[in-house]
Amino acid sequence: MNETDLELLRRYGRDRAEDAFTEIVRRYLNLVYSAALREVRSPQLAEEVAQSAFTDLARQAARLSPDTILSAWLYQVSLNRISKCPWMMTRCNAIVGCTPATQRVFRTLGS
After folding, report:
1. For 51-88, what is each residue's pLDDT tens digit?
2. Which entry of 16, 17, 67, 86 is 20 to 30 Å from 105 by CA?
């Protein structure tokens, strides 16, 4: 049976069903990783962002609204994680340089 994202989240939030969370990660890992990679331009940093986004999801799974669009939520969490972490800004610039959009976000946050 193909469960919806909402059903998987409910099952994970209620029962801590690892198979439910694994399926969510399988569905969305490429989206989260590629979105992060476009911004930070470093595979290592993109992996850290993706891991952080899914950690946030694991913590908040039971509290997400039933009308949450999971792909949009994960994408937004990823971008927020990039823009709000000073270590990410430093590592991003030191390793490969950020995209112009990410640089603007960092400048805004720094002022």
Report:
1. 999 999 999 988 899 899 999 999 999 988 887 765 55
2. 67
Rounded distance between C-alpha atoms, residue 80 and residue 71, angstroms: 14
Q: Which domain holds residue 69?
A: 5-110
Instruction: Write the CATH number for 38.
Output: 1.10.1740.10
Q: Evaluate whether 21 touches 58 at the Cβ level (below 8 Å).
A: yes
What single string gives the DSSP state of each residue in 32-100? HHHHHHHHH--HHHHHHHHHHHHHHHHHHGGGS-TT--HHHHHHHHHHHHHHH-HHHHHHHHHHT---H
